[in-house]
Amino acid sequence: MAKRIYLDNAATTKVDERVLKAMQPFFLEKFGNASSQHMLGQEAGMALEESREIIARSIKARSDEIFFTSSGTESNNWAIKGVGLKNLASGKNHIITTKIEHDCILNSCSWMEEQGFKVTYLDVDKEGFVNPEDVRNAISEKTLLVSVIHGNNEIGTIQDIKKIGEICKNSGVYFHIDACQSYTKVPIDVRKQNLDLVTLNAHKINGPKGVGVLYIRRGTKIDPLIHGGKQESGMRSGTENIPGIVGFAKAVKISKSRDIRKMIKLRDKLIYEISKIPYSKLNGPKGDKRLCNNINFSFEAVEGEAIGAYLDVNKICSSTGSACSSRSLAPSHVLKAIGLSPLNLNSSIRLSLGRDNTGEEIDYVVGTLRKIIFKLREVSPFKLKYHGKKEN
Amino acid sequence: MYSKNVLDHFKNPRNMGAMENPDAEATVGNPTCGDVMKIMIKVEDSRIKDVKNAPSFRKIGSLESENLNGRTVEASQMGNFIISDIKFQTMGCVAAIATSSMTTEMAKGKSLEEAKNITNKDVAKALGDLPPIKVHCSNLAADALKEAIENFEQK
Question: What's the predicted TM-score (pTM) here?
Answer without folding.
Answer: 0.90
